[in-house]
What we know:
By secondary structure, the chain is α+β, with helices and mostly antiparallel strands. It is built from three helices and seven strands. The strands form two sheets. A four-stranded antiparallel β-sheet has the order 2-3-6-5, with no helix packed on it. The longest helix has 17 residues, at about 25-40.
Amino acid sequence: MKYLDDAGVKALEALLRSLCLTQKDGQAIYGVLEALTDASEFPAAALSIPATGWKSSTSGPYKVYRDVAAASVTAADSVQVALAAGSMAAASACGLCPTVETLAGALRFRAVSAPKSALSGEYRILKGAQGG
């Protein structure tokens, strides 16, 4: 999946500025770009964090971690995660960290201890958001 990013839109805008012959042409093109940007969505993907397969870590308060496959994510991306209401008690009981690390092809979840049951929810990838 490809999403619009600020740097790409700015580069396109600069190119279009160099091509526009009239102010009216430019306004029409910018209107289309604005509508396209407003219409862009970051689709949600289903998330399942197993209760098994957690590994130990030696640093910080979150002593265990679990990588969950997310094929289109990179380390330069950011992610928004929303756990399902039915997973909130298990997440709280295990001390799930409120932040998620992005890796090449995976999301890394950390916790104080491994959850007693699988957690579910959804996530949205914000392409290149960590770069800013």
